[in-house]
Write a structure and sequence with these properties.
Layout lengths: L3 H7 L14 H12 L10 E6 L2 H8 L12 E8 L14 H18 L12 H8 L5 E9 L24
Antiparallel strand pairs: 1-2, 2-3
Length: about 170
């Protein structure tokens, strides 16, 4: 089993994918299953996974994001959810959908890293274009998606620049 700290340290955003290397279905299913296992408020699991692999659908979804590098990814994973299916805190009306979808995306991205696959958290997309490309309804929401694939040989990864732990921790 991989050490979690090592896995979290190893994960980085990949922006160049090996176009000639397909993702084996076994690995893809392991990544998706890690998402299935993610926690959610009241265990409601208000998500749906959209696996985009056909050239036609890739082109449609890629149109929702302005960077050309996305076209090198052989697969895009989009997680959508419905606000009415998520837990709502009765005291103030807080709806857990965005938190639940962020947790499931984090599980997917870390699982992909553990399988030797690259990802990149993408939130700077056109939601109208993405929803239209996927045929989502007006009550479906997407907060982020990720490309999935093997990093291209020589892909540039930017070292993580994180604040020191003591700068963000308060012991009470």
């Amino acid at each position: 089993m991989t050490d979690f700290h090592e896995l979290a340290s190893k994960r980085c955003s990949i922006r160049s994918y090996d176009t000639g290397r397909a993702i084996p279905d076994e690995l893809l299913l392991r990544v998706l299953d890690a998402g299935r296992l993610a926690p959610s408020a009241k265990n409601l699991q208000p998500w749906k996974f959209h696996v985009v692999r056909s050239p036609e659908m890739l082109q449609k979804v890629q149109a929702s994001y302005s960077r050309d590098w996305l076209k090198s990814a052989p697969c895009l994973l989009v997680v959508s959810g419905k606000r009415e299916q998520a837990w709502v805190r009765s005291l103030d009306g807080y709806n857990s959908l965005e938190t639940d979808l962020a947790i499931v995306m984090d599980h997917i991205i870390l699982a992909a890293t553990a399988q030797g696959l690259g990802t990149c958290w993408i939130a700077a997309f056109d939601p109208v274009a993405l929803n239209e490309a996927l045929g989502l309804g007006p009550d479906d929401e997407v907060f982020a998606f990720t490309p999935l694939g093997y990093a291209a040989p020589g892909a540039i990864t930017v070292p993580k620049n994180r604040r020191p732990l003591d700068a963000m921790t308060e012991f009470l």
